[in-house]
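May I ask for a single protein's sequence together with how it folds?
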Amino acid sequence: MNTKEKRLGTKAQIRAIKNRERRTATAIFLVFILLIVVFSSYFTYNFLNQPQNQTTNPTSSQLKAAIIDQLSLTLPNQTFIETATNTLKQAGYTVDYYPGEKVTVEFYRNLPTHGYEIIILRVHSALGANNEPLALFTSERTSGTKYVYEQLNDQLQGVAFLPYKPGDPTYFGIPPKFVKLSMNGKFQDATIIAMGCDGLTQTDMAEAFIEKGAKAYISWNSSVSASHTDQATICLLQHLATDKQTINQAIEKTMKEVGPDPSYKSVLLYYPFKVGEQTI
């Protein structure tokens, strides 16, 4: 009798343990499910309530502009930089400034990757000898051991300040072929303002920037002095960024207010023609 009771008590004890284990497992499972529900609700709430201005309502702080000031090494104009920066900031742009020493081949190579809406190229530019295309100056001295592939494939060319004398330094220049083939990424409908000489004497450089994703290219049709292009660009920025005028309206008004270059008679033009009725 005692043995049978002991045996029954053991079975009951085993059942009790199993029942307790099932209850524990069930409780753990329910807690696990509850945690999933809580975390899912938390992340869903945060996702649905996160700021939407990056995609549906862009704020002015997300507009980006760049001032690339290669001329700061030879023809600095701090008043221009401050005025242009303030004009752009008041129009809602954040502004990145690049002084002349930063304007290298690699800088140009990665320029499209920054996502700028406005790019101001305050850089020397010149048409090359022997029918070479327009080149934008860098501040990087030429070298036979650097960028060998680009040099061999006419994606870089040597440029120098005039009047040139033997022994004067030469610098790497950025021709249209470099813009097309060596720049990384694409411009996202950027407006390019090329302040240097001869930017639209020919359309090669403009075509290269448009092919690379820019929306509009604005420049001079001949040589221009630094003081005149500085004055005209400030006026142009006010009409484009502050007054929200179309590209054609802004350029026409700038030319009426500032006029052609007094020495070289050059005027501002834009490319391609179809963007004239668009704003930046």
